[in-house]
Design brief:
The structure holds two protein chains of two kinds. Chain A is α+β, with helices and mostly antiparallel strands. Chain A is built from four helices and nine strands. Chain B is built from 22 helices and 18 strands. The chains are: A alpha+beta, B alpha/beta.
C-alpha cells in the first residue's frame, strides 16, 4: 500500500541522510521524497511516499520519532490531505504533432514552458495519479525526458502538523 | 580558551571523572588540555574498541555516562564495535573522536573518515562540531541524550582546528532544550489502571525483567512489586542478577539458552508482563504465539520497542521505575494457589540438575557452582560470548549484590575483559571476575597491560577448550556436517602470557582439584589468571 508521511525536522546538515538511512536499513523503498524549508527557516518539511503495510509504517514512524532532529511525524490518512506533485516533461513534437499535444495539455491544465522545432517541454502540477495518466498520454509522442518533484502534502481543513 | 580546553571544562561540568582513550595526531590538543586537568583520570587502552567496552563497564557499574576519546580515521573506526555494542545494550556513553581540520573535510586526506555517518545506524545521536563556540552546548546535549530516555551512545566528532580555535567569553547553557526530544517518564495513568486491572484478574502472571531494569535503577521497585503481589519473575540474559539465584520469586533465565523452569513459566502463564525487556529473538523466539493466547503488558521507555517484536495488549511507555511504583500504588493481588510453588519446584529441579561429567577435563557446570560458592556477595561477574557465557548463565549462583555483565545485544567477543577494567575504574573496591573462552581471551588479552598499568585486581578465568566452542557446537548440529575453521591451533601458552604481564596464574585440568585451585586463585593478592581445561566436545547442554 502507498503511504504518505509528513515529517518536520531541524533544518540542519546530515538530517536527510539519517531519515533516509532509517528506510534503507529496513529495506523499504522510498517511492518519492520531497524536502523544503517551512515558514520557520529553522524547520524543514519532508514528504515521503513509501510502499508498505500498516505495521511496518508504524515502526518507521516510531523510529523517525527517535531521531533527535525530528520534531514531528505524521502518516497522512489517505483521504484527508491535499497531495501535489510537479512534473516537467519533454516530448518529441514536430509541426504535425504539436497541435495534438497542445490540445491534450490544455485539457489537463499543463503549461507549455519551452518550444523548439522538434520538441515541447510541458509543466503540470497535480496528484501523482493524474501525472501518471498525463505521462501515459504523452508516451505515444515519444518522451525525451521527465523530471518529477515527488509528492508534497498538507492535511485538509484548518489544522496543522 | 581554545576548543580543547572548552571540551575538557565541559566534561568537568558533567562531573566526568574517568576517561578511556587512545592517542593520535588529531587529538593532541585535547591531550594537552587533559594534561592540565589531573582530576580527570585517564586510562590508556591497547586498542580503541576496548575503550568503548571499558566505558560501557564503567557506565553500567556507576550509573554515570562512560566517556572515551580516540583519534580520527583508524582510531574512530576501531571504536565502532564498542559503540555498536553499547547501542545494542542501551548503555549511556559519550564517544569523542578527533577529526581532520574542518577546512579539509570531504577531501579524503590522511586519516579522514566520515565517522558520524558510519555510526548513524547504531548511535543515539552524533555531532560534527564546526565551531568551538558550540562545544559547551553540544557536550551538555550529548550527556543529556546519552543518559535520559532510553540510554545509548552519542558521538562528538571534533576537527583538530576546532580544538585549537580560541573562543572569547564562551556561553555555558544552563539547561538543554531539544524540541524533537522529549522522553516519557511517568506511565500514562489510564494505561496503569488498565494494566493493574489485568494483573489483578490474572491467575498465573509472570513478570519478565530485562536489562532496562538496571538502566532505570528499578531493581528495588521490581523486587517490591513482585514480592508484594507474589508474581514469579523470569529474566532475560541482560536481566540476570536482578534477583539472587535463590530468591524465592526467581524462576530463572528465559530463552533459547535459558532454563526449563523459566520457559515453562512463560508457556503456562495467563499474563505476561515485560519490564525493560526488548523481547528479542534470543529471549522469546516466537512472541506472536503468546499474543494470540494471553494478554501482554509491555513497559518500556522507548515507544519504538513496543510493538516491534511483540504486539502488546497494554503498552506503557515510561521509566520502568516510575511505572512499577505507580503500579505498586494500585493495590495488592494474589495469583492462583499453587502457581508460584509449582514453578519453584521446577526451579529447584533446574538448580539441582547435575551437569554431565565427560572426563578429559573440567566439568564447567560443577566448576561454576564451586566458584559461585566462593565469590564474595558484591562480585561483578563479566562473562564473554560463547559456551563460557551460557554455562555461566546457567550454573553460576549469584547472590544479593552480585552484578552480572555481558554483551547481550551484540554478543561481542572480547567484551568481558575490558568491561571488567571499566567496572574496576568505577568501583575499585568491588571484587571483579572475568569469565571468557580461549577465543575471546585472545581478542582481548592486550588489555592485561592496562590492568597492570592501573594496578587493578581482576580475577580472570579462561575456559580453554582449544576451539571456538559455541560455533563448533552449532557446526556439529543439523543442517551442518561438522567443524570447520574453529580449531584454535597456534594459541600461546596462557600461563606464559600471564607471566609476561607480571600476573600469577593457575591451571585446572580436572574436577578433583577444583576446590583447592579455586581457593588459591581467588585468594591471590592481585590480578590472576585461571586456565580451566575443558574437553572440546563439551556442549552447552552438558
Ligand atoms: C567479535 C565476534 N566474532 C565472532 C563471533 C561469533 N562467535 C560467537 S561464539 C564464538 C566462539 C567463542 O569461542 P571462545 O571464546 O573460545 O568461547 P567458547 O564458545 O569456546 O566458550 C564465536 C566465534 C562473535 N560473537 N563475536
Amino acid at each position: 500500500m502507498q503511504q504518505t508521511l509528513s515529517v518536520l525536522v531541524e533544518n540542519q546538515a546530515g538530517i536527510l541522510n539519517r531519515v533516509t538511512g532509517l528506510f534503507s536499513r529496513r529495506a523499504f523503498n522510498i517511492e518519492s521524497l520531497a524536502v523544503g524549508v517551512t515558514d520557520d527557516p529553522s524547520i524543514s518539511r519532508i514528504t515521503i511516499r513509501v510502499d508498505s503495510g500498516n505495521n511496518v509504517l508504524e515502526q518507521v514512524e516510531k523510529q523517525l520519532n527517535k531521531l533527535v532532529e525530528v520534531i514531528k511525524v505524521r502518516a497522512q490518512e489517505e483521504t484527508r490531505y491535499i497531495g501535489r506533485e510537479l512534473m516537467l516533461i519533454k516530448v518529441n513534437a514536430s509541426t504535425k504533432t504539436r497541435g495534438e499535444i497542445a490540445a491534450i495539455a490544455e485539457i489537463v491544465g499543463a503549461k507549455v514552458d519551452d518550444l523548439t522545432p522538434t520538441s515541447m517541454t510541458l509543466e503540470l502540477s497535480d496528484t501523482t495519479e493524474r501525472l501518471d495518466a498525463f505521462q501515459a498520454m504523452m508516451r505515444p509522442f515519444s518522451i525525451l525526458e521527465v523530471a518529477r518533484t515527488g509528492l508534497i502534502a498538507l492535511q485538509t481543513g484548518g489544522g496543522k502538523l | 580558551m581554545n576548543g580543547a580546553e572548552l571540551l575538557v571544562e565541559a566534561l568537568k561540568r558533567e562531573h566526568v571523572t574517568h576517561i578511556f582513550g587512545y592517542a593520535g595526531a588529531t587529538i593532541c590538543a585535547i591531550a594537552e588540555a587533559l594534561k592540565a586537568a589531573p582530576e580527570l583520570a585517564y586510562t590508556l587502552v591497547r586498542t580503541e574498541q576496548n575503550a568503548g567496552h571499558m566505558a560501557s563497564g564503567y557506565a553500567r557499574m556507576s550509573g554515570e555516562v562512560g566517556v572515551c576519546i580516540v583519534t580520527s580515521g583508524p582510531g574512530a573506526t576501531n571504536l565502532i564495535t564498542g559503540i555498536a555494542t553499547a547501542y545494542m545494550d542501551s548503555i549511556p556513553m559519550v564517544a569523542i573522536t578527533g577529526q581532520v581540520p574542518s577546512y579539509l573535510l570531504g577531501r579524503d586526506i590522511f586519516q579522514e573518515v566520515d565517522i558520524t555517518g558510519a555510526v548513524a545506524p547504531f548511535s543515539k545521536h552524533s555531532y560534527l562540531v564546526k565551531n568551538a563556540r558550540d562545544l559547551p552546548r553540544v557536550v551538555k546535549e550529548a550527556f543529556y541524550l546519552a543518559s535520559t530516555g532510553r540510554p545509548g551512545p552519542v558521538l562528538i566528532d571534533v576537527p583538530s582546528d576546532v580544538q585549537k580555535q580560541e573562543v572569547e567569553s564562551p556561553q555555558w547553557p544552563e539547561a538543554v532544550s531539544i524540541r524533537g526530544y522529549r522522553p516519557s517518564v511517568q506511565g500514562n495513568g489510564m494505561q496503569i489502571r488498565r494494566a493493574w486491572e489485568t494483573i489483578a484478574r490474572s491467575r498465573r502472571p509472570v513478570l519478565c525483567a530485562g536489562g532496562g531494569i538496571f538502566l532505570a535503577g528499578a531493581e528495588a521497585a521490581l523486587e517490591e512489586f513482585a514480592t508484594r503481589n507474589s508474581i514469579p519473575v523470569v529474566t532475560t540474559m541482560m536481566g540476570l542478577s536482578l534477583l539472587p539465584t535463590d530468591h524465592p520469586l526467581n524462576i530463572g533465565m528465559v530463552g533459547s539458552h535459558g532454563s526449563p523452569a523459566a520457559n515453562r513459566a512463560l508457556a503456562q502463564a495467563d499474563l505476561l508482563i515485560f519490564a525493560g525487556a526488548r523481547v528479542a529473538d534470543r529471549a522469546i523466539c516466537e512472541p506472536d504465539q503468546f499474543r494470540s493466547r494471553i494478554p501482554i503488558i509491555h513497559m518500556d521507555v522507548d515507544p519504538a520497542e513496543i510493538g516491534k517484536n511483540v504486539q502488546a495488549t497494554i503498552p506503557i511507555v515510561g521509566d520502568v521505575r516510575h511505572i512499577l511504583r505507580q503500579l505498586l500504588e494500585q493495590g495488592v493481588c494474589q495469583p492462583e494457589e499453587g502457581w508460584l510453588s509449582g514453578l519453584q519446584a521446577l526451579r529447584r529441579a533446574d538448580l539441582d540438575h547435575a551437569p554431565r561429567e565427560r572426563g578429559g577435563g573440567v566439568t564447567p557446570g560443577r566448576f561454576l557452582r564451586l566458584l559461585g560458592e566462593r565469590l564474595p556477595a558484591d562480585t561483578a561477574v563479566c562473562a564473554d560470548v560463547g559456551q563460557n557465557l551460557i554455562w555461566t548463565c546457567r550454573y553460576l549462583p549469584m547472590q544479593e549484590g552480585t552484578r552480572f555483565l555481558t554483551s547481550g545485544g551484540l554478543g561481542t567477543m572480547g567484551y568481558s575483559l575490558p568491561a571488567a577494567v571499566g567496572v574496576k575504574a568505577a568501583q575499585p573496591e568491588r571484587n571483579t571476575v572475568v569469565i571468557c573462552g580461549d577465543g575471546s581471551f585472545q581478542m582481548s588479552f592486550p588489555e592485561l597491560a592496562t590492568i597492570r598499568a592501573e594496578q587493578m585486581n581482576i580475577k580472570i578465568i579462561v575456559f580453554q577448550n582449544q576451539v571456538l566452542g559455541l560455533v563448533r557446537q552449532y557446526q556439529t548440529q543439523q543442517p551442518y556436517t561438522g567443524p570447520y575453521g574453529v580449531d584454535l591451533d597456534g594459541s600461546p601458552d596462557f600461563q606464559t602470557i600471564a607471566a609476561a604481564y607480571g600476573m600469577d596464574s593457575y591451571c585446572l585440568g580436572s574436577d578433583e582439584k577444583a576446590e583447592a585451585v579455586l581457593d588459591a586463585f581467588l585468594s591471590n593478592a592481585g590480578s590472576s589468571l585461571l586456565i580451566v581445561r575443558v574437553h572440546p566436545e563439551c556442549s552447552t547442554n552438558d
